[in-house]
Amino acid sequence: MAGTTSQPTQPTARTRSWWGWGWADAHPDDAECTAMGALLPGTLSRPLPVPRVRDLAVAAPAVEPPRSLAHLIDADPGDRAAHSMGKAYRDVVRALRGRPGRIPDLVARPTDDQGVADLLDWAGERQVAVVPYGGGSSVTGGVEYRGDAHRAVMSLDLTAMGRVLEVDTEGRAARIQAGTLGPSLEDQLRTHGLTLRHFPQSFEFSTLGGWLATRAGGHYATGRTHIDDFVQSLCVVTPAGISNSWRLPASGAGPSPDRLFLGSEGALGVITEAWVRLQECPRHKASAAVAFTDFRSALRAVRALAQSDLSPANCRLLDSGEAALSGAAHDGSSVLVLGFESADEPVTARLERAVALARSHGGRYDGSGGDGGVGGSKGSPEASPDGDAAVSAWRSAFLRMPYLRDGLARMGAVAETFETAATWDRIPDLIDEVRREVGEAAVKATGFPATVNCRLTHVYPDGAAPYFTVLAAGRAGDEVAVWDDLKAVASEVLNRHRATITHHHAVGRDHRPGYDRQRPEPFALALRAAKGALDPRGILNPGVLVD
Amino acid sequence: MAGTTSQPTQPTARTRSWWGWGWADAHPDDAECTAMGALLPGTLSRPLPVPRVRDLAVAAPAVEPPRSLAHLIDADPGDRAAHSMGKAYRDVVRALRGRPGRIPDLVARPTDDQGVADLLDWAGERQVAVVPYGGGSSVTGGVEYRGDAHRAVMSLDLTAMGRVLEVDTEGRAARIQAGTLGPSLEDQLRTHGLTLRHFPQSFEFSTLGGWLATRAGGHYATGRTHIDDFVQSLCVVTPAGISNSWRLPASGAGPSPDRLFLGSEGALGVITEAWVRLQECPRHKASAAVAFTDFRSALRAVRALAQSDLSPANCRLLDSGEAALSGAAHDGSSVLVLGFESADEPVTARLERAVALARSHGGRYDGSGGDGGVGGSKGSPEASPDGDAAVSAWRSAFLRMPYLRDGLARMGAVAETFETAATWDRIPDLIDEVRREVGEAAVKATGFPATVNCRLTHVYPDGAAPYFTVLAAGRAGDEVAVWDDLKAVASEVLNRHRATITHHHAVGRDHRPGYDRQRPEPFALALRAAKGALDPRGILNPGVLVD
User: Fold this and answer.
1) Domain ends where: B393, B425, B447?
2) Which residues does the annotated region (Disordered) include (chains A, B) (predicted)?
3) Residue A433 Cα, gap to closest chain B Cα (Å)
4) Tens-place pLDDT, residues A379-395
5) B176 and B145, same structural domain?
6) B220 and B275 share one domain
7) Distance between terminal CA atoms of chain A?
8) For a designed S-S bond to B139, which of A285, A383, B20, B88 qualifies (C-beta 3.0 to 4.6 A apart)?
9) Between A269, A421, A528, which is nearest B250 by CB?
């Protein structure tokens, strides 16, 4: 779409979808959508048409930018529409139904800190809400304006700040601008033989700044995986001044300044730059998939792995539904996808120990247990680095999933995911109850049975992060309301188990009710006071985190 | 001393020193003090007498506690004097010279959250400053009151809250009261086969709450070692209410509430309880010491180790002075103390790889290099779990050091430590400049040469934490001023290299100037606002972190 990306440092020949996930040319076509819909009872017989920007009624901007900032600002209606929402299922449906979120009056693309500061100054004077925008991949309503307390809305797109500015190869760290998209970030680091290895599912369409502002969860299934742990220092432009923390490997000097801004979702300031910790690219890799007949046994195996010293890079447990959906197993087995990697030493022995541990909890690795695609690579795990059939199937499905979700949305289906984290004592019941209660709610809301699958994306010695996929019929024209109902049921289960409203998708606006229940009230007082001090005019991403 | 410890859950037959480190009976006697002093030119010929509480003029309390709280409060002069300061060198000297810090009017020992809340309510109404107090081992002026803006001062001693309340063996975590001292904490966990493995030098004389409030650095030389990383949730009593965070393995829901209180040093609330992550007790251990002729080569070896996948539990590099002082080497070598441990698998192979890596950077392990005590255990490292002579020498010295410091203080010497952390690019010059500039300042201040040693206590892929020991002559009656001068010189070097004012000793009152320079101003605004919201009457540990 015209005008959506003017990123001199991050050029691409492909066009982003304004209404759905990722690349416009990667979406399933009408035939594929129809075929998918046919698998899900209660959906439409033909896909909804792909929405066109020119069909939207886009009002003229309510404010005029000052001449001094005009070079940073775009008022193109298509560009503005593309910045009106993130990429949650509910956003996609709203676009399909011609009812997107509030379209921002302006899109600003600053190129340096001073530009950000000038834009904030102007917005503060004019009571213009500022919604920081990275790759726009929020799935929790993090990048749209709701309400009417401001004179106008400006989307602050950081992607013109997309460079790796400095690399410290000795200390394995780099200073990187916040608007750098995942692929560009890794491309720029590759010449130095280094990598951040932060690969959320949104990797292609999200930025370092977005990861930092939302405490994104990354590549590693165990150990340090949240982007938080890779931060040496932050530069944050706030209406009250620019915050530059010192670049440190560790410190005990008061509460961490960085940890206040990590997860602040644009409500306290605009993260413009960070020094982040890097790694050498892994030279040794090995992976395997282990099948389990019994999901609870698989949970015990995963807990044992998480509590061992093995530190698998990948340790994702797919329940039987998720395994079937991704093609990792078709016999009702759950599948544990294991992967090890190191820049330093061979990982065969660790994989073998991990497989043995999984077997001791009832896992099947050798493919002889009648589990179809599972354990397709015979013999030593090292023989098939990255190559196990079930592992590959799962990986391809992982990257394609958001596109398929949008295809299902075009068939009038409800198709969405959500995630959480809880201590091990809560995990088995929590998963069962989400499956049961969301499934029952779907039948009640739509009259058709739903699919509720679960995988563990990240595991810790003390708990795990379950990730749920819901596929259900919709109610024509009312799909968002159906989803909101199902999500409310799910959130009740999470709250009952004191499981977090989000492990790595952020709070945004969609998770505010759950977040407000979870957050200790004295901390809310402190956060509100901090916001009042840094954003006294209340222009920064209003409605996110605190009011 | 009478009255200093009324800890029903943590009984001990030994008596704490009111004026110096640790146990009263562990201090060097006059003869040992004299012998130590003789090694350091410019010190006294006889030790200063051990100070007696009864020689202090302790005024009557300026406030009377209400009857409803009287059972929690002690006004015994000895108890109050013992709560007047922490255990920094400057505190010890002030006690020796009969000029301790402001003696609190009352010592309160609540037994539950309600007691803490009631005490805070009363203190707020009466404008009584509240100084939270765990084991009292602060070395940065964290537990004393300075100034006169309050009507009275209450030391809030948490050690009557010293129990492990709940253990989750499946998820390896425990709910523990903040006043639990290190040894009692480990004793209570041991019955469950679990351990926190947080062993700061102050372990015997510090509490979980103190560790949390000061972001203490712990046992592990690499990886996760700050207590921060072991926290699942916190209970914090603030004047604005009780903050209970949810017990979670990880979360991405907004800025971490726990991270605001971790390092808040009693200025935002009183931490009363935490769920912390535990581990199984290690069953496999191995250690070795590697000698280096050249300190910069040793630094490179340590960096390579920190950037490998080896994760040594111990990876402490002693420079030649430190190695000599601790008896680890007497030939001018620097010594790298390496240790591995695991509950899970043998660690021999890892130690062997680590030793090989150290050798590739010029390290000597086999003892054949003429380095005396170094590498005393021949053959396989696994043959001597914990047993290497240099390792043992260093460990004994480590625990005895604070007592020796107090003995030197009695000889009129300046004897103190400080620590920092910085990225690898800064480390070599930073260490050189601290040695040189503090050494020169000591000569200027006292007329005698000083010893300035360095060790790395914790190392990270991106940097390290150097820890300095300064031994110098004093100026009779003016020792504190001499130390303050030397510390100011050291702090200038740290500031020049943007090295943190503290890696794990906390800010307290002594580090405020350095902290104020280091902390980004917008974060200071946010912190002040948070303090205003949680402690509107400004009674909590006044002078710490923010004003």
Assistant:
1) B393
2) 362-388
3) 19
4) 333 333 344 677 777 67
5) no
6) yes
7) 34
8) B88
9) A421
